[in-house]
């Protein structure tokens, strides 16, 4: 009996380490990148599922963005095109994010969506990324229109640069504000942006500072804000809610 025990093959330390590493690789899933998460989410739900029930929100957001042209034109006659373009450039993105999130919150579908196989946060992040791309794209012809309406006061490149930078900065601000739960997270970003970006409209010295910033600096601000936006978007997907970590897939 003792002879049989002694004949049992004992794995070497190298074999033990190899088996432990294999068990860990199989038991601990590798963390997906943001792009892998968004790609898998889009493949699972499709474009129709991504914007399901959001048609009215999109319509209202476009309407709000168009109506904002009136106060932009009026404000630009007082302080110039710079402060007005910077303040109202994120109107489309802000409206899209607010209305879609508010509808989910009010309709009671938010908690239900969080129980689905696909992460609700991944769906929201993908939707916000699409909204951001659409807002940046729309801000270019919007800047051209505003540039024409204000008599080509500043250079076209400068006008586009300040508008796009406003969209990107607001995107970063909105993601940070979403760390607040409930309606506070939805209302914090518009309120903070109106307070900070609206300051040059009522304070002449702040408006003059904007006009002394060249277009190249606004381009750098845009690039930096876009990078921060993607980083915070990844953190948003991984953030814990109520002590639980939401899976990506």
How would you describe this protein?
With 249 residues, the protein is mainly alpha-helical. The chain has one domain (35-238). The chain is 78% helix and 2% strand. It has helices at 2-6, 13-27, 34-50, 55-67, 69-79, 81-88, 91-107, 110-113, 120-149, 156-177, 183-197, 199-202, 204-211, 215-238; strands at 240-241, 244-245. It has a two-stranded antiparallel ribbon with strand order 1-2. Helix 3 packs across helix 9 (120-149) and helix 7 runs antiparallel to helix 9 (120-149). The radius of gyration is 25 Å and the shape is elongated. The model is unreliable at 241-249 (pLDDT under 50).
Compact overview of the structure:
The protein has 249 residues and is mainly alpha-helical. The chain contains 14 helices and two strands, in the order ααααααααααααααββ. It has one domain.
Characteristics of this structure?
249 residues, mainly alpha, two-stranded antiparallel ribbon, 2% strand
N-to-C series of helices and strands: HHHHHHHHHHHHHHEE
Backbone shape: elongated
| Low-pLDDT segments, ≥5 res | 241-249
Biggest β-sheet description: 2 strands, antiparallel
Spatial arrangement of strands, main beta sheet: 1-2
Mean pLDDT: 80
* Percent in strands: under 5%
Instruction: Specify Rg, calculated over alpha carbons.
Output: 25 Å
**Helical residues, percent:** over 70%
Count of discrete alpha- or pi-helical segments spanning 4 or more residues = 14
Question: What is the SS-derived class?
Answer: mainly alpha
The N- to C-terminal Cα distance equals 52 Å
Number of strands: 2
Count of individual domains: 1
């Amino acid at each position: 009996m003792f002879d049989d025990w002694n004949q049992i093959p004992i794995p070497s330390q190298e074999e033990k380490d190899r088996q432990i590493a294999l068990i860990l690789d199989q038991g601990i899933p590798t963390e997906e990148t943001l792009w892998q998460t968004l790609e898998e989410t889009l493949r699972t739900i499709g474009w129709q599922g991504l914007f399901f029930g959001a048609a009215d929100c999109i319509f209202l957001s476009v309407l709000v963005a168009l109506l904002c042209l009136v106060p932009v034109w009026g404000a630009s006659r007082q302080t110039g095109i710079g402060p007005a373009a910077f303040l109202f450039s994120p109107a489309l993105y802000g409206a899209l994010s607010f209305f879609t999130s508010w509808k989910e919150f009010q309709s009671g579908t938010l908690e239900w969506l969080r129980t689905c196989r696909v992460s609700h946060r991944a769906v929201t992040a993908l939707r916000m990324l699409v909204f951001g791309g659409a807002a940046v794209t729309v801000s270019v012809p919007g800047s051209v229109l505003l540039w024409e309406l204000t008599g080509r006061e500043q250079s076209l490149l400068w006008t586009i640069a300040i508008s796009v930078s406003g969209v990107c900065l607001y995107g970063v601000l909105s993601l940070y504000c979403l760390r607040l739960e409930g309606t506070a997270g939805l209302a914090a970003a518009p309120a903070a942006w109106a307070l900070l970006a609206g300051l040059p409209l009522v304070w002449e010295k702040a408006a003059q500072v904007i006009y002394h910033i060249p277009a190249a600096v606004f381009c750098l601000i845009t690039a930096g804000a876009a990078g921060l936006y993607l980083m915070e978007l990844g953190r948003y997907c991984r953030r814990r809610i109520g002590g639980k970590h939401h899976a990506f897939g």
